[in-house]
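R.M. (postdoc): so does anyone remember the format we settled on? I'll just put the structure tokens first.
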């Protein structure tokens, strides 16, 4: 009887470990953004941020935060619950800037890593 109880306990533990490993498998597919490209439209006073970040699930693995700094000062921090597409997408922000102003934008994945890009307004 004890031997049967021991085997049942053993299989429960093995099954539990398997469940933890299987649930954590998605984290191995997490990745930082591949690229962040910036463009500024002086006429519209808007900054376009194009982010390349592949995901199989736009709600679970996504670009969560896009932080924008102008001349070293944070001017915008945007949080997102979902990524608009599964790979490349563009966010546009209305931010006035003058010639010579420097933008620094950091796109951060909710699971793993970030990527930063800079642009000086021509």
């Amino acid at each position: 009887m004890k031997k049967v109880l021991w085997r049942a306990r053993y299989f429960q533990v093995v099954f539990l470990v398997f469940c933890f490993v299987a649930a954590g498998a998605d984290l191995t597919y997490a990745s930082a953004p591949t690229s962040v490209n910036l463009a500024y439209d002086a006429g519209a006073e808007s900054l376009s941020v194009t982010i390349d970040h592949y995901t199989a699930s736009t709600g679970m693995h996504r670009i969560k935060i896009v932080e924008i700094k102008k001349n070293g000062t944070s001017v915008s921090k945007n949080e997102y619950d979902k990524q608009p597409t599964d790979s490349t997408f563009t966010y546009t922000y209305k931010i006035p800037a003058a010639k010579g102003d420097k933008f620094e934008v950091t796109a951060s994945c909710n699971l793993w890593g970030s990527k930063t890009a800079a642009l000086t307004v021509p």
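R.M.: ...and that's the designed sequence above, right after the tokens. Also worth knowing: The chain is about 20% helix and 40% strand. Strands lie at 35-41, 46-52, 63-70, 73-79, 88-94, 102-109, 114-120.
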